[in-house]
Request: fold
Amino acid sequence: MKKLLTLLLVLPLLTTCERDDLCPESSPTTPNMIIDFVDNNIIENSKNVFGLVVLGIDDPSVFPLNTSVPEDSNLRGVSGEDTNQIFLPLKTTEDQTHFILISEFEIDDNGTSDNLADDFFTGNQELVTINYTRNDVYVSRACGYKTIFENVATTLDEGTDGQWIFQTIPQNDNLIIEDETTTHYTFSH
Reply:
């Protein structure tokens, strides 16, 4: 009788528990911002950015970047990518994220390949500031929360080397970044 009573008390606890060992890969997570690059003359046409390097920065006052490349710089191992789409991770602890996008990035050895001290990088820098409101949404006990970004807006600062991004076009007004299945912004160049 005691075993039956114990079973009746424990059985409801076992059937109402949520699985909490691992978060499945199919669970929604905090999305990246998806940006497509298009031709400024014909907005409907996709267009590659050549030699693109994307750098996340904490302080926009460092823009534009000093073009010298010290021997221990992280830029040493970077090569620009030819692409028409990027995925940008937004900060989940602040309502603003800054990126420097450099087109046609190259490291110039200044004619002295054996002397790294005088190397510098070339390319056109743009500071992209992304403003948004964060909304944390519960996913599950195993996965915790994900952040949704609402009222997303971008601004550009072209610096002193000229503009290479001409327009930033949101896919809709009051843009919400909730998933990674569609483009959120289009940048024309």
Remarks:
- The chain is about 10% helix and 40% strand.
- The beta strands are 33-38, 49-57, 81-83, 85-88, 96-108, 120-140, 144-157, 167-170, 185-188.
- The radius of gyration is 23 Å.
- The mean pLDDT is 89.
